[in-house]
Amino acid sequence: MNGMRKRRILAASASAAALALILAACSDDGGDGGDGGDGGETNADCAAFEEYGDLSGKTVTIYAGIVAPEDQPYIDSFKPFEDCTGAKVDYQADKQFEQQILVRAQAGNPPDIAIVPQPGLLAQLVDTGTVVEAPQGVSDNVDEFWGEDWKALGTVDGTFYAAPSGASVKSLVWYSPQEFEANGWTVPTTLDELMTLTETIAADSGHKPWCAGIASDAATGWPITDWMEDMVLRVGGPDVYDQWVSHEIAFNSEVPTEALDMVGDYLKNPDFVNGGYGDVSSIATTAFQDGGLPILEGQCSLHRMASFYAANFPQGTDISENGQIFAFYLPSETADDKPVLGAGEFVTAFSDDPAVQALLDFWSTDTWANLKAQASADLTNGGWITANKGLDTSILVNPIDKLSADLLLDENASFRFDGSDMMPGAVGSNAFWKEATAWITGQSTQDTVDKIEAAWPSS
User: What is the rounded radius of gyration, in angstroms, for the C-alpha atoms of the chain?
Assistant: First the structure.
């Protein structure tokens, strides 16, 4: 039976019930192996893993910046692969991943696989000459389960290296459904409605409508880059966004400049910010993790931040459609337009060992995606989502995960990756952050975009 047929068997078994049985079987055997393992029996259906052969004695090292408690679902998701092939997966987490993975690659000591969070970092790793081209099976899976846009993000200079994995949605505004209901406010479906809502809250509620924080140590300023990217998508559309990110149009050209001014309509208006913290200048000194918390205290009503922000609310917070906190899609100019800004992870290999290649293949299937989603379901205030089209959204427990997955998988949505993560480091993680911080503390829009444009590398 060929590999594609076996992947279909895996896909057919990917219901929530079947996945639960696989996970239960894998946990029941104590991790002592399965077919070809070092003892013990597994009840997991290993038929679909036969194409990978007996990998007993092989160890595959994974290096990532995803630390506890988020690392455990990754470890759990690889159990069927371990039990059915005999290989072992050594998952290593490091908060300094983004710096250390480059050091290791440049020193000729990379792991077998890395979970890379930015296409720009992937390109830097490819430049070290240590990254291995993705195998054909992975390429086929990405064609089937993600499509051209996502595949392009894992491609450098025409060569496909890295399959997408997890994802997040950034085009969200956090709010209190209970506050909205009490005041008769409705979720906006256009940018005009969002501004009208903002003005209504400012006039009638007794508090500033928006709260925000951009402090993040050396990365201070990055939340404003997300705001601006979202507005470029809405003002110029996906094509102009792509041109801006790739520098086919200047950073200080008309659409980006207008987009930053639109951000300023909210964040630099003293009538609109910074609920719970102070004036406009307090945005720069408020930790991004704390930015939206005043919603719970009734000190602000709106906070633009990505889906992963759910983890910052206190344990026990009711995050749901009718609860204390939820989020709505940041609307576009019309209700029919659906630009979605997001981010994601990419699975990058530095070895062509058969065990590594086999794990890459399994990792790029819809079955692994569903195993990972189920293993993550119990994480506090949010689990894990992916843009994999084979994701069974019934597995998702957290309402924010369901909302985000619906946006990612919406056929009418135009998804674009975080722009600063795709720009050269001198811009995306340097000048953009720094000048955005200067902008929120008083620098003009024109000076800001001009300085960022001047930082763009000449070659």
Answer: 23
> Sorting pLDDT into bands at 50, 70 and 90, what band is 420?
very high
CA distance 201 to 191: 15
- One-letter identity of residue 275: G
CA atoms within 13 A on the CB side of 251: 25
CA distance 104 to 398: 36
Yes or no: say if 42 and 29 are a contact pair by the CB < 8 Å rule: yes
Query: Which residues in 346-365 are b (16+ Cβ under 10 Å) and which e?
Result: bbbbbbebebbbbbbbbbbb
Q: Determine the topology of domain 172-341+422-454 in CATH.
A: D-Maltodextrin-Binding Protein; domain 2 (3.40.190)
Signed CA dihedral, 81, 84, 87, 90: sign only: positive
User: What is the per-residue pLDDT for 147?
Assistant: 86
Amino acid at 124: Q
The per-residue pLDDT for range 154-202, each reduced to its tens digit, is 999 999 999 999 999 999 999 999 999 999 999 999 999 999 999 999 9
CATH for 3-168+351-415 is: 3.40.190.10
